[in-house]
Amino acid sequence: QVQLVESGGGLVQAGGSLRLSCVVSGSFIGVMNIDWYRQAPGKQREFVARIRSYGVANYADSVTGRFTISRDNAKNTVYLQLNRLKPEDTGVYYCNYADSWGQGTQVTVSS
Fold first, then answer.
1. Which of 49, 77, 85, 105 has a CA between 20 and 30 Å from the CA of residue 96?
2. Per-residue pLDDT tens for 9-57?
């Protein structure tokens, strides 16, 4: 059973940065495609970024050029670097693999 634990969220001003972490247990991330999603209040959960097992990354149009997904295989951890944050980036950020989800970490961007 894969388990995912997110951390690193917080309150930041517009234009600021955060780095989110997703620690994975139960499987080796080097053979997994790991996604980040987010959910704003009153909205559906939406895709943010994916890092594939062979290293290629994909991003939602809304975050391309501002967010970067990466991984550290030795720590079995996936990261999401959030730069030039905007108020519309506010939400709960979730790590995902197949049907496994973490508990989420709150990101709040003030204007």
1. 85
2. 999 999 999 999 999 999 999 899 999 999 999 999 999 999 999 889 9
